[in-house]
Amino acid sequence: MSQSTIESILQEERLFSPSTEFSQTAHIKSLEDYQRLYQQAKADPEKFWAELAEQELHWFQKWDTVLDWQPPFGKWFVNGKLNISYNCLDRHLTTWRKNKAAIIWEGEPGDSRTITYAQLHREVCQFANVLKQLGVKKGDRVGVYMPMVPEAAIAMLACARIGAPHSVIFGGFSAEALRDRLIDAEAKVVITADGGWRKDAIVPLKPQIDKALANGAVPSVQNVVVVKRTAQDIHMEPGRDNWWHDLQQQASPDCPAEPMDSEDMLFILYTSGSTGKPKGVVHTTGGYNLYSHITTKWIFDLQDTDVYWCTADVGWITGHSYIVYGPLSNGATTLMYEGAPRKSNPGCFWDVVEKYGVTIFYTAPTAIRAFIKMGDHLPKARNLSSLRLLGSVGEPINPEAWMWYHKVIGGERCPIVDTWWQTETGGVMITPLPGATQTKPGSATFPFPGIIADVVNLDGDTVGENEGGYLVVRHPWPGMLRTVYGNPERFRTTYWEHIPPKDGKYLYFAGDGARKDNDGYFWIMGRVDDVLNISGHRLGTMEVESALVSHPAVAEAAVVGKPDEIKGEEIVAFIILEGNCQPSEELSKELKKHVTQEIGAIARPSEIRFSDALPKTRSGKIMRRILRSLAAGEEVSGDTSTLEDKSVLDKLRGEG
Ligand code: PRX
Q1: Burial, 191: exposed, middle or buried (Cβ in 10 Å; 0-12, 13-18, 19+)?
Q2: Phi then psi for 109, rounded to 5 degrees?
Q3: CA-to-CA distance for 241 and 103, rounded, in angstroms?
Q4: Separation CA 149–CA 386 (nearest Å)
Q5: What residues in the chain have per-residue pLDDT under 50?
Q6: Which residues in 307-423 belong to E strands, given as ranges?
Q7: Which residues is 337 bridged to in the sheet?
Q8: Minimum CA distance residue for ligand 1 atom 11
Q9: Distance between CA 559 and CA 602 in Å, rounded?
Q10: For ligand 1, what atom is nearest to the CA of residue 511?
Q11: Cβ of residue 394 lying under 6 Å from some atom of ligand 1
């Protein structure tokens, strides 16, 4: 977070109350209602979650224990049986929602499609049968590498229906990144498309799959299913590749949902940490279903007349919880948009709001800052009066962006929910409840009922008001990750032992810095580890460094974030070249391209700085703090006494 942002949030005292009109019809109507729920949940969390699980979800068989907590491993609703696809589809078919729009899809070149709950159910059942025909059994992992088309949601729900955990891989990841994830998940089948539309151009997806699977690199993959989206020529490997529409047409629409154990794995989603290899975050069925359901209902105040639009991609956790599972479990209408603002149509988001009468809009601060730059005339030229609630996610929102969102998009009438959470948490953890909470621009406000969040020091002790510290959660919650796929040790050490447990009490370490103000509001200050947040996308510095050193010209690389007005952060890479290589503009371009090939465009450094040394401690650790100051063009402050060779600093500043 930039210094000016930190200063502005430290001074932020404005308070915004929900309108009486909004509160009257909201699920949670007042601060007293929120506080009552929060206290009830705190006093007896298991009772609180059990009552909600009973009220909100359909169970084939009830659980016998609400929580089995063997820290840091937790099981929720033990021996309960349910299916999230049943909760998202079948149960709505016996109500008036049968013919309600489940998914409204707006495709980039003007395509659109509306799918009712009955139609979605049919398609999901058919595709579940397709998966079965391809030999996918309960427990087998399925990779999903798709553009933003309804088939992505259909594939996810079909996997869930037969109990095959999905692993969705963001369509912007390169073949190399895709291969690593498919290998780690040991995927049996991969579902993809020929391509997707992005900013008036076709993004090829199937060729990336071919590259990832070439030479038997992922031996577990037996079949690939390809949705025809962009219709360019692609290679179809005989015996391995199948067209979605061929298989789908022949499949029976009869496929009862498999009763799954609460703790059966629902999905793996890879995310970046401070080490080189992304972690496979594991979520299970019962707890995740409940947590994504109830957070969607209360935080977005879902009503039956809402048209709800979350602009994330299904490749990220936000897409899982708040495009697919949460909204559908609630019987809502969820909008999926394939496009992105582009030169030919910078106002396209507002066109979508107007066209469909969107009532709830959930996006990232990066997008909001980009909208500000594009100009007020774009939203002002559209009718946005249908909007009644706005949300923000993925990175800290600076008060200026918050105020613009409030005034220009929300017409000063829409509450804003700034939602803090992570891939690991399954759903939102700290957030306003829109009919109850008075908001302060830039603060995620209070924990969701049932979430015991705190700001602590490295001993696990609560720090004072307005003092910075580490954000932790003191009690397990149903949506929490259960483990890191194939690596329970990493799960234990990364999240639960970073702050050493005391008296058998384990704290969940989020990796974010935070402070609580005098009124108990949480202010999230950004990551405290080597994780970058570029346009709301999470990337590990070591991941980018590994990509850079895999280039033959690079001897050593260190990557840091530099504050950026729009993206929040951008990547600056300090590079030491191999002895026989010379710095050049061309090489700089080549290295940027190399990272794009190794990981994807989201990881492309915006700046490469060649150097002949890096600031290191005597024990050989790179002092990133110094590099961050240098990248931001700030004075290097703080202790540099551990720096091994002080002349490095002058050299990096170009004074050596
Ligand atoms: O640093 C926090 C930031 O995003 C991280 C989680 O990234 P990811 O797992 O990719 O999930 C993103 C979508 C939930 C967090 O550790 N973050 C997320 N939401 C906020 C945020 N930082 C500040 N304010 C938020 N509202």
Answers
A1: buried
A2: -85, 35
A3: 27
A4: 24
A5: 656
A6: 307-310, 333-337, 360-363, 389-393, 416-419
A7: 106
A8: 422
A9: 14
A10: 16
A11: yes
